Amino acid sequence: xxxxxxxxxxxxxxxxxxxxxxxxxxxxxxxxxxxxxxxxxxxxxxxxxxxxxxxxxxxxxxxxxxxxxxxxxxxxxxxxxxxxxxxxxxxxxxxxxxxxxxxxxxxxxxxxxxxxxxxxxxxxxxxxxxxxxxxxxxxxxxxxxxxxxxxxxxxxxxxxxxxxxxxxxxxxxxxxxxxxxxxxxxxxxxxxxxxxxxxxxxxxxxxxxxxxxxxxxxxxxxxxxxxxxxxxxxxxxxxxxxxxxxxxxxxxxxxxxxxxxxxxxxxx
Length: 268
Hints:
By secondary structure, the chain is an alpha/beta fold. Helices cover 42% and strands 14% of the residues. The protein has a single domain (6-264), classed as Alpha/Beta hydrolase fold, catalytic domain (Rossmann fold). It has 10 helices and 7 strands. The mean pLDDT is 91.
């Protein structure tokens, strides 16, 4: 198993004045730190310090052998220790939400709040029919000889609301289209088998769980059930969006995020 070292979190960038609260952005399996552009801008304009990363295996970092959610969580713990602020709210999307949850085991004293976007506390058995189909549907085009730039746009649009468009959607598609195939394949495998339901009752910090009405990957019912098991959780379901609510309806998502931070924390 690959050791976890500080370079494993690749390129990151603290942005904005440190006014007591840092928002840490964790991208999903299909992504990179670049696709948070709209959220970084909104958060910095609101006075928050923002820290985003390319997870282990993404961007310029070497792909861990194997790439696992736990490896990412341990790398996040190191990142929070080195670059985190006095208070940190960790926002994780999809696989990033899984890494965020798992990091509670290693860095609970450095995590003061969570935003979980389109994620789950459990992905079930790797041998399950749904899980196997999840993997097959995402890697079969690559096995057939298609490249990531050829495969990613259609795959991503199938995860969004029909007709989703706009700068945020274009940014997600452009960012994912530049992924390395080895990382893409490893990330799909890393998600399957994830289990952290035991952590849900342990979170004693404010939590916002955000689902998309049309998301078939992280279904709203799954996220609502997840939120119900967290003592300080708020659940929101955005209508008319799929798996990438923050990209499909950026203004709506950003407004809900800033409202949560304003009510539960302070930038001053």
